[in-house]
Amino acid sequence: MVDARELLAQSDPQLHGLLLGEERRQARGVELIPSENYTYPEVLLLLGSVFTNKYAEGYPGRRYYGGQEFTDGVEELARARARELFRCEHANVQPLSGSPMNQAVYLAFLDPGDTILAMDLSHGGHLTHGSPVSHMGRLFHFIRYKTRPERDGRVDFEELRRLARETRPRLVLCGTTSSPREDDYASFKAVADEVGALTMADISHIGGLVAAGAMRNPFDAGFDVVTTTSHKSLRGPRGGMILCRREHAERIDKSVFPGLQGGPHMNQVAALALTLRKAGEPDFRAYAAQVLLNAQALAEALLDRGVELVTGGTENHMLVIDTVASFGLDGRVAERALDDVAITVNKQITPDDPNPPLRPSGIRLGTPPATTRGMKQDDMRRLAGWIVEVLRHPRTGADQQRLRAEIEDFCLTFPVPGI
Predict the structure, then answer these.
(1) How far apart, in whole angstroms, are the C-alpha atoms of residue 25 and residue 339?
(2) All domains of the chain in start order, with CATH
(3) Catalytic: 287?
């Protein structure tokens, strides 16, 4: 039997070289983008398995093609594990990614032009939470609420209630892509109940932390729908899940298929089933706790060095540095300077940022991928030192090469799963 890697090297040497290059980049650098992670070797195996070959339009027991005895078993396994892990009544595991996942929820319950109350993008909201450049932003009427930077970046619930009473939304949406604060689900639910709105929480970033019990579960506050991607803190394949109360199950399922997408990617669903099993084990709970400890250590080490953090710290896995205030650099320049020494972050807008999204005022950092490799609090403090050193005195030439070699040597002591 020919080894798949040898076959790739023979059939497409150029693509094989790019694969090797990406493996070297991941192994020799440190990944601090909070929306990324290193998945399990078993997930990589399942993604490349024969489940890739099978079309499975429909749902278990109600498919449009034959030969589904094993794919039905895979999807039932993933749904059951999701329900148990997130303590919900129904789970749809077919969304191909995070954006269609959220779109399916909107389209399940709302008509074009209906109002959704969601977080302002510069304060932490996602593109699918109403950005004008998103199709959803054109299809629905999004009213945006904000956090209060002077109150450590927490949501202004007095203003949220005023907006809800004034605009009478059909859906109140919470969940962020760049806020270091934990959501107060009970307060969101109280506002939604007052105006008769449905509640939705997008926990894509913290799905693994919620599954492990390290952060609050929106269902404990009575939420109607919870969405999460599977590839961030959950460490699974790239995909999404819609979790909901039983009364919403039929609408959600019809919205996903046939409403929005065709057949699910069964290799992805199989990999998700494996991920959900692992997320229920003690090792994963310990991992989630370490993610939060590492985030706290990284934040404290940066604050000790005089770095200005949005919200002044973190309550989850991520933090946002105001690079303009801290170093006189916009986020694009800071991202490139760190990339040059094998520290990968992403540029990030800050609340009410005066700068455009491609040249924002900050960068965003997260600890899940570094924690996956086995890094602990002392390693976070060392990383903080390098980050400040680079951004205060950007390196060039031989000095940059020396620092990059030092960071690469450090990273190589922490293996990347699957490489």
Answers:
(1) 11
(2) 46-279 (3.40.640.10), 283-411 (3.90.1150.10)
(3) no
Q: Which entry of 238, 254, 277, 392 is annotated as an active-site residue?
A: 238
Question: Catalytic residue at 202?
Answer: yes
3-state helix, strand, coil in the chain (%, to 5): 50, 15, 35
Sorted by sequence, the CB contacts under 8 Å of residue 302 that are 6+ apart come out as 309, 319, 321, 384, 387, 388
Instruction: Please state the rounded mean pLDDT for residues 340-344.
Output: 97
Q: Is 60 exceeded by the pLDDT of residue 136?
A: yes
Candidates 31, 202, 253, 353; catalytic one: 202
**Tens digits of residue pLDDT in 19-39:** 999 999 999 999 999 999 999
Residue 110 is predicted with a pLDDT of: 97
**One of 36, 42, 57, 340 is an active-site residue; which one?**
57
Give the whole-angstrom CA distance, residue 282 versus residue 112. 44
Per DSSP, the three-state class of 320 is strand
Beta strand extents in 165-213 (DSSP E only): 171-174, 198-202
Q: How are beta strands 90-92 and 240-244 bridged, if at all?
A: antiparallel
Of the listed 146, 154, 232, 278, which one is catalytic?
232
Query: In the annotation, is 253 catalytic?
Result: no
| pLDDT value, residue 151 | 66
User: Please, which pLDDT band fits residue 219 given cuts at 50, 70 and 90?
Assistant: very high
Name the band, by pLDDT with cuts 50, 70 and 90, for residue 1: low
Which residue in 229, 275, 350, 371 is the catalytic one? 229
